[in-house]
Structure formats: structure tokens, C-alpha cells
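Hi support team,

I'm opening this ticket because the web form for multi-chain structure prediction keeps timing out on my end. I have pasted the exact lines I submitted so you can reproduce it. The total is 1007 residues across three entries, so I didn't expect it to be a heavy job. Is there a limit I'm missing, or should I split the entries? Thanks in advance, R.K.
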Amino acid sequence: MTDVFAHALRRRAARLAVNALIGLFALLPILWGFLSSLKPTDKIVEFPPRLLPENPTLEHYARIFADNAAYFIANSIAVSAASVLLTLALGALAGYAIARFRFPGRDTLMVSTVAVMSIPIASLLVPTFTLLSATGLADTRLGLVLLYSAYQLPVVVWMLYGYFLSLPVEVENAARVDGCSPTRTLFKVVLPLSKPGLVAAGLFVLVFAWNDFVVAVTMTSSESARTFPVAIYFYLGFYGREWGPLLAASIVSIVPIVAIFVFLQRHFVSGLTGGGVKG
Amino acid sequence: METRRAEFWVPYRLIAPAVALEAGLVIGPLLVGFWYSLHNVRFFQIRSFVGWDNYMRVVTSPEVLGSLAATAIFAFFSLILTFALGFALALWLERDGRSATLMRAIVLVPYMIAMLVGSMLLKWLFSQEAGLSQLALGPLGMGDVSILANPKSAMAALVFNAMWRDAAFAMIMLLAGLKSIPPSLHLAARVDGADAWMRFRRITLPLLRIPILITVVRLLIHFVNILTFPLILTGGGPGNSTEVVVLRMFRLGFQDHILGPANALAILVFLANLALVAMLLLLFRRAGRL
Amino acid sequence: MTIQVTRRVALAGAGALAVPAIWRNAAAQTPATVTMWTFLDPAKPGGRETALKQMIESFEAKNPNVKIRVEPQVWTTLAEKFVLGHNTRNAPDIGWVNAENLGLILNTDAAADLKPLVVDTWSAQRRDDLAVPAALQAVTVGGKVLAMPLMAITWTLMYRRDLLAQTGLTPDSLKTWDGVLEAAKRMTKDTNGDGQPDIWGLGLGLASERFSATPAVLATIGGQNGIFTDDCKARIATPEAERALTWQADLITKHRVTPREAVAMTSDDAIDQFAAGRYGTMIIANSRFEQIQRTAAGWNKDDLAQVGIPGWNAQKGGPAVITGWFAVAWRNSPRLRQAAAFIDHMTNADAMALWQSPGGQVPMLKSLAANPRMAEPANAPLRLVANEFSTNGFMMPGRCNWSRTLADFNLATQQLVLGQRSAADALKIAERTTQERQ
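Hello R.K., no limit was hit. The queue was backed up. Here is the completed structure from your submission:
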């Protein structure tokens, strides 16, 4: 009896140890960044380094909000949310077409989806800037939304296509017999059943749009269209790197996205299921 | 007959918006990039048509060839290690429960922090001079090792960066696949006396074929096109040892301001990507038949 | 019904997202709003920001129907975006460009000729008052003045007074590279006895990304009077460069006064280390002086001092390579006259006084440099730089593309330190890659 108990205890301890190791691996750099963000400016690069701040301060957090961080965060939220919605809408339409219809060009379309995914985005920046400028979309949040959607759409089509395949086709047939158009069937029947899949695909778009810096810094110039990652980059300034606000802003930028993930976690994993297995 | 014809156009109407967006914002710029690649473009302005000269220049450039080797090494090791770690994490955190949920969230944090910041923090940790790597290496008697100053260990640091950030991505993709395997299968196998390894080989792996394929393809594309990690963590050095091909392309375009060769390289990288993905698909198809 | 509502919401959303575009176009129709791209944000605190803000206020007071709108930019992409904007006929009326990127302006047709609009309107007295006339000459191409110098910055040898005093040497010994090496050797020490120096004599950032000028570049420029011919042919695979490069690599491999990790450090990384008290000397842009004082950890910030760039012998000082910021007017600007007027305003005597104080910039006019205020001890760093400009000022030919040549030197140093190539071979590569960009 005690043997079994001791065995269970050992197992538990081992599990805990492995989990601690994983946590350390994942969080150590970020923890270091967080602790440094609480140090006064003249202690951040101190040598030898001290893990814990001696006189913790929130001055860098105060500084970023004085630098209008709230507005840039709002911009990022608007751009990310719009990108997610647009990508999901277009991705659902296209994914549904591929999952449920056999039509000439379907194979080409599926191959092109993978092909478009393989284009290095960095190579598109200069021509894209020219294009956006010519259409008046440069330096707008709408321009960013369209670009983020375009870059993430192939992945989303791929994922949603897989998810739709995993859904039973009978319900749709019933709706079609009742006289629903394919689009209506998609919106009324299929999408409500696909919430987990949409959440999963949407979160990938969100992570990309929320963190993108390269595209945003090239395509926007005015403060009104500036997103948070670009604002963070401003702390790598001409007169030096300002670790304090840089780290504070980075820590702040993780909070919303981790919160969303924790909130949607259950959907996230099960949403990938359909797409994952049947894709 | 009428409805048939109407039906014929339905899928095209459904895909039209997506195709339009891709054509406008991805294919269009790609074609413009191709146009640049046929010209002498100095300081962002087209000077003259040069045909395939830029391509010749790119494929004969020692720097580009070196960057291809760096890309191959980086992508190969990153793919294998990231996938392995992601798979291990997925198996480890598969069961439900509060601790697994918490751990999954923790593992995902590196994936969600901006790549730029993540790599900057790692550089700080790896730096011998900043004094942090010594905390870990000092007790091992390796206090005077500078990870980033040596070509081999710098590449290892770059691969570590990839693992650190992207293992969570692999984990999530594979976790989803694992969850969809009916528990009854494992139970039945256990009754038949199959041990854990057997169950993994005979049940888990075959049923995960598609999620594995998707994860590997997406990781591969991501690693071959990597820019941020080497740009921030190693700057391509020391001695160009970690200057991967997209970093080379970025430098040609945005720092050297010679867009012709930069775009020629971009087109070649794109074609190489396609070839790699096609190869993987074939490989998996064949493995599936065996 | 629901679909309609969604559609309306979607349209409203798209409208809101597109607001900057509409706003921008509306602004473009009021003829008198001049848009300027710079890395400074006049809405923020700080000396330079305040100086710019006051300039804008005085200009707008003088020209009531012209408004100046500043759009702060990430400094590293300013020049590129200006030219890209020009290509699509969408550039700001004024853009700031750093000296390293002047090639972008002088080799394209993006910039307006400021000679008739600005320089020709000057009195002879104002023209003679320029403290750094080389900067203006460098941006004059075929009689056209394509940019106006706003802020001059150069690299200096920064050092720690306290550490130098411990070596028994005087600042005068830092006038030659050999003297610097000697001081560096004496400064390098292991204070905690772990077998690794904690204080290094000379700091270097030798990475190929976020790089800055290093001793090798400056010694080469000083030794052979530049690294380009007048028609932008690179002169890097030379005995002078070899001497300089070998000297630099020896700091790490032979004399061990610089950490090996320098090959992986950016200029920012190395400056952080300097501020953390790890280095005795380092070559740094004088614009970073303030930041280092602000972040100095574990040492007295008043011990930060600087001297001009050393030379190979004490008679001839090293080059004070002129970098810094220039203002460019967009050639196709519909408000070119107003834009030029504001550029003129940013460079007149009053503005130059503001750039100097509260801006903390090196005085760009002789009359300012002669001002008694400059003799105050607080202005010693600026006085030193102003002096260096007048005695050792050196301007890279503006048309040559040298923005990454500094990185080429860094790569060559890395290769030499790692033992991958000889100095001569490494420099041949550096020369070829620099040449390929011209």
C-alpha cells in the first residue's frame, strides 16, 4: 500500500520536475526581460548582472503610456481584429468551395495555395509599397489589414478546408434540399458548426498581425496608422537603444494575446482537430 | 439544366474574393519583383534592362552560395529538433487537467511574443559579456566560452532560437491530431498486450500522418524563409556563418539598394521552396503507400 | 437583415480603418500644410525635440498660412522610404536623410535643387559663417544643392577618465593608435579573479548588423585619405587598410584588450557594455555621449570623456568623418516653395542656435562656435567636436554608396579573427562587395 503511494508520489514529483524544466526553457528569456523592465535605466545593463531588481520601478511602463502606447495598442487591436475577420470570411468561402465542390481548376487552386505560402514576404515589400502608394492604401490601417489577410489567407484556407471536410455532409444536404443557396448554407449551417476551426485559424492570423513589424514599418509613416510593434521599434532610436521602455512595451504587448489564448484555449485545440487529421 | 449551369459557377463565386486578394497583393507584387529582377535597379529606380544577368550574378556569387549552405544547415537542424521537441511536448501535455492546460499556455508564450523581441532577449542571455550565459556555463567549467563568437555555436544558438519559439507551434498542431485519435483504439491495443512503444508506432504515428505532414511543411517553409532570427540574434555572423539566404536577399535589397539581384534571389528562393514542398508531398505519399 | 447589419458594420469598420488616407488627402488639398519626415518627434520632451518644436512655432508665426506637420519615422528606413515615396509620387514635402544614405538622394531624381531656393538667397556673410562647408559641398552635384546639412555628428574616441588615470597615462597619449593600444593594455584587468577580464581596454562592435565606425575604418580613411576615388571606385584592398585591419584584429587575438565576443556584438551591444563600465575606451558617435552618461552603471558618469580620432602619428590627427542629418525637399512637392522656406528656416542662425542649445548639437556656424557660451565646461564635448571638424573634418563623397562599407570592414575583421582568411583576402572581398553597390 505504502509502496503504491510512494510510487505515485515519485511519479508526481518527476512530472513536476519535467514541467518546471519546460517552464524554465520557455519563460526564462521573457522572465529576464520582465525583471529588467522593472529596473531603473542605469541598472539594466549593470555588470555583473543581478536577476532581481533592487529598487523596482514602473517608470518604463509609465513612459510608454506617456508615449501614446494606448493609441498604438488600439490601432493594433483594430488592425488585428479586422485582419482576423476578413481572413476568416474569405478563407471560409474559399475553403468551403474546395471542400464541397468538384470544379475545373480545383487542383490548380490547391497547389497554388501552397505555392503562395512559400513566397518570402520580405521580397514583396518594395513592389507592395509601390502598389499601395499608387492606390492610396499606403499609410492606412486598411492597407495593413488587406496585406495581413493576403499573407495569412492561404494557411487559413488550408485549415478551414480540412475542418469542413471533417463535418458531416448530411446536415448541409438537408439545408440545400430546403432551398438554401450554397452561401446561405455556409453561413447558416456550416459556420456555426465550425466555431472551433474558425477560432484556431483566427488565432494564427492574430499572432501574425499582432506581432508583425516588418510590413507595418514599411507601409505606414504617420502616427495615426502606427501599430504597437512599430512603436516598440522606435525605442531602438538614433540616439541609442532604450532597453527600459523597449522591454516594458514588449511585456505589455504579450498580455492581450496570452489572455485571448487562455480564454479560447479549449476551442483552439479542438478546432485544429478536424483540420489537422482530415486535411 | 438552368440550375446546373448556375451551380457550375458557385465554387468560382466562392473563391473569387480570396483569389482577387491574393492576385492583387501577393501575385501582383511577385510579378513586379520578377520585372525588377530582369533590370538594373539602382537606389530603387530602374536604370536598364539586363535580361538574366542578375540571375547569373546571384548564382555565381560566393556570398549567395554560402548563404544557401547556411540556410540548409539551419533549416535541417531546426526542422528536426523543433519537430521532435514539439512532438514530445504534445505527447507530454496531451492529457487534460489543470496543469497540462497551464503548461500549454506557458509553452506558447515564446510563440506569441514578437520575434524581434524574443531574439533580442535570447541574444542577451547568450552573451558572455553581458554575464548571463556564464550563470549557466560557468558551473560547467565553460565560463570563457562565447557562444555567439564561434561560427558553429552561433548556428546552434540560431537553431535554439527556432526551437524555443516554434516548438509550441508544432506542439499545438500535433496536439490537435492526438486528441482526435479515439481512446478506444489505445484501450483495445492495451488489452491485446501492446506496450507503449508499440501503440505509438502502430496507432499514433499512422493516424497522425496528415498532421505531421502539415506541421513539417509549414515549419520547413518558415525556416527556409527565416529572416528575423539571424537578423537580430547573430547578424549573419560571425564570418557570414549564419547569413541565411533570405537575410542575404534582404541586405541586397534594403541595405545595398540593388533590387535587381535581390529580386532574382527572391524568385529563386520561391522556386526552391516549391520544389522542397513538392518533394515532401511525394515523400509522404510514398511513405503512406508502404 | 442580419446580413445587412453585418455589411453596414463591415463598411463602417473599413471606413474607420481608411481614415488616415482620407485625412491625408484632405490635408493635401490645403496648400499650406508642409509634411516633414524626421526621426524626431517635436511632441516629446528632450532638447532636440524642443529645438525643433520652437523652430516650427517661430516659422508658423512668421508664415501664418503655412503649417508644418511632422511625421516621425523609424530612422533606419527614412531615406529608403523617401525615395520609394518619390517613385510613386507620394513623398513628404521634406525628408531627413542621414549622411550614410546620401547616395540614395544624390543618385536618384527625388530631391529638389535647393540652390536657387535657399543657398542663393543667402548673404555672403551667412555663407562664410558655415563651420563645416565640406558638408554642403558633398551634397552639391553638378551645381545643384540636393540637401541641406542640419546636424553634424562624428565619431570620437570616448574614454573613462578614472581608468585612464589609473594607468598613469595622459589623454595626450590617446592621440596615436599605438598610444591607445598601450592604454588599453594597461586598462584591461580581471578584478574578480575568475581568469576573465572584467574591464577591457577597448570596446568594439564588429557584427554585420547595426554597425558603426571602427578603428580599422577610421585608420584606413586617415592613412590613405578616404576609401573611394572621386568617381566612387572603392579603395579598400590596400596596404594602409591591411595595416589598420590587422591592428584591429590583433586587439582581440594578440593583445587581448578586446573581448572575442566583439565579433558578434552590434554597436548598440558594445555601447551598452561601455555604459556598464566594461570598457576603458571605445570609438562612438558623439551623439551617443548623453545616452552613455544616462545609463552609466557602476561608475561616475562625469568620468566620461572624449578625444578626437587618433592617427598613426601624433602630428596628424585621425579623420573627423562628418555624418549626421540633412534635410531634403521633395522635387515634385506641390508646396516646394514653402518646404524650401522651412528648410532655410531650420538652418538659419536662430535655428542653428536652437540646435546647439537646447538641442545639444555641435555648432554648425562659426559665429556660434565663437559664442562665449561655448566656453562653458558643460559644452566641452561639443567644443571638442567643433574643433575636430575644423582641423580634421572629412566628408565621404556623397554619391558613393558607403552605408554598408562599415559592415564590410566588420566582416573582414571577423574573418581575420576567426582565422578564416588573411587580411589581404578579407579586404579583397570587402572591396568587391563595396564596389558592387556603386
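A quick check on our side: The longest helix of chain C spans residues 2-17. Let us know if the file doesn't open in your viewer.
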